[in-house]
Design a protein that fits this description.
Shape: globular
Number of strands: 28
Number of helices: 8
Structural class: mainly beta
Strand content: 35-45%
Strand order of the largest sheet: 1-12-11-27-28-13-14-17-26-18-25
Helix content: 10-25%
Radius of gyration: 20 Å
């Protein structure tokens, strides 16, 4: 069986397509540097919903689940149209649809981004279908279009994508990326729309129904390059195929469970840089690492204590995944250090955690749509 697993990985690696990723400053970091974070959060309370909206308020308009892009930090380049127009996008496992800003977005902030020009693409088709993208900081309206999308050497024909017509101004002014390329399950996305990854598979552009992240610098489609991780992949079944949601056993410090006691759910999310949980469990961890809440509602840690702080261990599928203090404490270069554990109010019956970039930079992750499972291994 071991050799079968090795042969499977070799077969996948022969046909994969890799896309470079670049780490950029998140919106939160930009706001913090400019001294604007407190006022921004007061105006746009930090809410992050990880459930689909219920019935659409307007049956003629398609609504997207709420998403908060305050902490996205890794981007890659794609192109849309004929001839191709380039965009910086976040490859986001926490959402499903592709959208970019369009030339019909007239607010000043949109001018700071690459805008899709429908008139300059000979392959663009306007569906005439209005959509709304709902965020913690407001709504974004747009239309659904179809065009050729190129990701590396993968050419995805007649791909549905959203073109934003307006965006919340303060949101747009501080984001580095142009748009989002979602990699969640189809059930999470716009109704009746085939997401990008599903299109790649249906058009037989990739040989295996998988993608993977080495979040330090690459996302790969159609295979796995085992040079990016050490040891063996440990597989965990997806417990709810909308997000990449899995079961987690516990979160512990020095052998003592501090959160997720008795088990909980976790979403593996490349679209946030933080480790996010509900208020009570997060406060338990902040207390152990002696993190104090600032006036900006962030948790501050004494930089001199980083070397003495313990690992925080996430146990998933019977495997311990330690996260050291050098990873969960962020130094901003100004002698200030922040805990990357963040609290949010999730509308769930059970404890829910979001495992963002802090965790994913340490662990190579494989997203296997063929078998609805996530593979984890230490990043090389």
């Amino acid at each position: 069986m071991k050799w079968l697993g090795v042969l499977w990985l070799v077969a996948l690696s022969e046909c994969l397509v890799t896309i470079p990723l670049t780490k950029v400053r998140s919106i939160r970091e930009n706001l913090r540097e400019k001294g604007m974070l407190k006022s921004y959060l007061e105006k746009h309370p930090y809410r992050q919903s990880y459930k689909s909206l219920g019935e659409d308020p307007n049956p003629k308009v398609t609504f997207e689940p709420m998403r908060n892009y305050l902490d996205m930090a890794y981007i890659g380049i794609i192109s849309i149209g004929t001839p191709p127009q380039e965009f910086k996008v976040v490859f986001d496992t926490g959402s499903t649809d592709l959208w970019v800003p369009s030339i019909y977005c007239y607010i000043p902030a949109c001018a700071e981004h690459n805008l899709f020009n429908t008139t300059q693409s000979s392959t663009f088709v306007n569906s005439g279908r209005p959509i709304k993208l709902v965020y913690g900081s407001g709504q974004m309206s747009g239309i659904l279009g179809y065009d050729t999308v190129q990701i590396g050497n993968l050419v995805d024909l007649a791909q549905a994508f959203g073109l934003s017509l307006n965006k919340p101004g303060t949101f747009t002014q501080h984001e580095i990326f142009d748009g989002i390329l979602g990699l969640g399950f189809p059930s999470l996305g716009l109704k009746g729309v085939t997401p990008v990854f599903d299109s790649l598979w249906k058009q037989r552009l990739i040989s295996q129904n998988v993608f993977a992240f080495y979040l330090n610098n690459v996302v790969m489609f159609g295979g796995v390059d085992n040079s990016y991780f050490t040891g063996n992949l440990s597989w965990v079944p997806v417990s709810k195929p909308s997000y990449w949601q899995i079961s987690m056993h516990s979160i512990s410090i020095n052998g003592k469970v501090v959160a997720c006691d008795g088990g909980c759910q976790a979403i593996v999310d490349t679209g946030t840089s933080l480790l996010i949980g509900q208020i009570g469990p997060v406060n338990n961890i902040q207390n152990v690492i002696n993190a104090k809440k600032s006036l900006d509602n962030e948790f501050i840690v004494d930089c001199n204590t980083i070397n003495t702080l313990p690992d925080i261990v996430f146990t998933i599928g019977g495997i311990a995944y330690p996260v050291p203090a050098r990873s969960y404490i962020l130094e901003d270069g100004k002698d200030e250090c922040y805990s990357t554990f963040s609290e949010s109010t999730f509308e769930t019956d059970t404890e829910l955690w979001i495992l963002g970039d802090v965790f994913l930079r340490l662990y190579f992750t494989v997203y296997d749509r063929a078998n609805n499972r996530v593979g984890l291994a230490p990043a090389a």
